[in-house]
Amino acid sequence: MRRLLTYLKPHLWTMAAATFLVLAIIVVELYRPIIVGNAIDDYINNPSLTADAAFLGLLQAGAAYFAMMLLGFLFNAADTWMLQKMGQKIIYRMREEVFTHIHSLSLSFFNTTPVGKLVTRVSNDTEAVNELFTTILVKLFKNMVKIIGYAVVMVSISPGMALVSFSLVPIVAGLTLFFRYMSRKAYEMTRNKITEINTFLSEHLSGMKLIQIFAREEQKYREFEKKSRELYAANWREVMIFAIFRPMIYMLSIAAMVLVIGTGSRAVLNHTLSMGTLFIFMTYINSFFEPIQELAEQFGTLQSSLASAGKVFSILDEKPQIVSPKNPTPVQIRGRIEFRHVWFAYDEAQTPAEPESGAAFARDEKQKEPDYILKDVSFVIEPGEKIAFVGATGAGKSTILNLIGRYFDIQQGEILIDGVDIRNIDTDVLRTAIGQVQQDVFIFTGDIKNNISLYNEEIGMEQIRKAAATVNADTFIEKMPGGFDAPVTERGSTLSAGQRQLLSFARTLVYDPVILVLDEATANIDTETESLITKALAVLMEGRTTIMVAHRLSTIQHADNIIVLDHGQIVESGTHQELLLKDGVYKNLYELQLLAE
């Protein structure tokens, strides 16, 4: 709650005005029954007044009552407008903060966190927090002040009648505490089930093609039905708690009303209480239990909002593993890359607990040894060189590409760009200098031109057209309805694999990178498209340091140097012809591919 209240700092004047309006609303609500009660005593139940005087008095009371109604409406409207506007500003800021922070997190976080969970945090949970600022906090304050206000006014008018009115309050308080506990549990369960079903939907809608290919629709339907029933049960439990609590409070309010009418009627007949005062008490007791009921419900909603806020803050508290240095070393990247005795494992090494014996220590240290993907890897790539990495699956080829862009940090050794450790280079500067074309191309919903420029306003239409023409992507773009303005659906489902890959090449080229990274860039395309890309690659690689990873060795034979990896270590390096003459791992891979063809 303390952390949430920090979002109110820019809106202190708004909160102060809203608090004043709430107090004014309560005064108006408390005063309205008094106007009617006084009218009953002074004008209706007063035989000493003439009919004209009584009528005039009633008109004045009616006008005063109407004025209070109008004031209450204006105060409520102003209060609602101010709070809703403030709440929307706060949630806008919070959503921006969460989304910006998610962008700063490392790839390892996204490898272990479901997309649906993040979507729920940014949308559903922030909306629950919005309700806290726009409704819950003010209503909690308003209802607590109303309860105190009703109690004070009732005691000041008639202590005896007030005591009768409050006789059922202990029972109401007990029910409220029990309801608060039960509703909190119900809210927590509902929020968790919503997160689960959103995660399930996000994952399975994205993988719908695979589900249909393997005819798993029936099984997935049963899984979804189970999760849907769990959410239904959680919602139903929440509804039933409210369905039981509301009538019970209503029955107690009716019982209190009966007590007030019975006791008050006797007092009126005994001339110890006026008819107007009895009316005031009847109105107050009818309204007294309403804020108590709302207070209990708002405590439940408050718990839900706080639970949602906790989940939002859990994302904001995630620390990015890769942080740009506070004082980065200035560097004009030319494209010289050097690995010096690099060791890397995706699972971080953990320090073992203090052992009881040397044997235990040796056994424990062996268990804690990280699974190194790269082991003492060293090589140098000069500016403008074309280098290829080959090896079996899991040899560490793609890992090297990720490390060059500093998407992960190494455990031992150094990675240098133009003589500067990449940990000392601003990450934006480093990654802007690297253009990466991956095997799995992601296409955003929008149009062709924005999928090439990635909505970068500094990139003009002429640059987009030139990049597309260079990689021969214009051959299919111009045929599409709308050309570069042609709409693209989610993930580019209406485009072929080859067309998506060509867009990826154009996207990389338009940013004019110093270092070009090709990670299986021609793996998913047909022979005709590969021919187009091969022609474009000559232009694309001109003057750039190029790093290629490919299983098809025919695509990297033109490389200046081919580095062969095996189980995370460099076992061979040289040109295509040199490696064939060595009669080693590369030659075996090459001959196996020839046989397969």
Polypeptide structure, described:
This protein has 597 residues and is of the alpha/beta class. Among the domains are: 7-316, ABC transporter transmembrane region fold (Up-down Bundle); 439-512, P-loop containing nucleotide triphosphate hydrolases (Rossmann fold). Helices cover 63% and strands 11% of the residues. A six-stranded mixed beta sheet has the order 6-9-10-3-11-12, with helices on both faces. The protein has a four-stranded antiparallel beta sheet with strand order 2-1-4-5, with helices on one face. β11 (561-566) and β12 (569-574) form a beta hairpin. α2 runs antiparallel to α3, α5 runs antiparallel to α6 and α5 packs antiparallel against α7 (169-206). The chain is elongated and about 125 Å long. The two termini are 66 Å apart.
**Helix content percent band:** 55-70%
* Overall pLDDT score: 83
CATH fold-level assignment of the domain at 7-316: ABC transporter transmembrane region fold
Largest sheet: 6 strands, mixed
Oligomer state equals: single chain
Major sheet: order of its strands?
6-9-10-3-11-12
Name of the CATH first level of the domain at 7-316: Mainly Alpha
Poorly predicted ranges = 349-366
* Cα distance spanning the termini: 66 Å
CATH architecture of the domain at 7-316: Up-down Bundle
**Distinct helical segment count:** 20
What structural class should be given to the helix and strand makeup? alpha/beta
- Classified in CATH, the superfamily of the domain at 7-316 is ABC transporter type 1, transmembrane domain
The Cα radius of gyration reads: 36 Å
Q: What is the general shape?
A: elongated
Bin the strand percentage.
Answer: 5-15%
Number of strand elements? 12
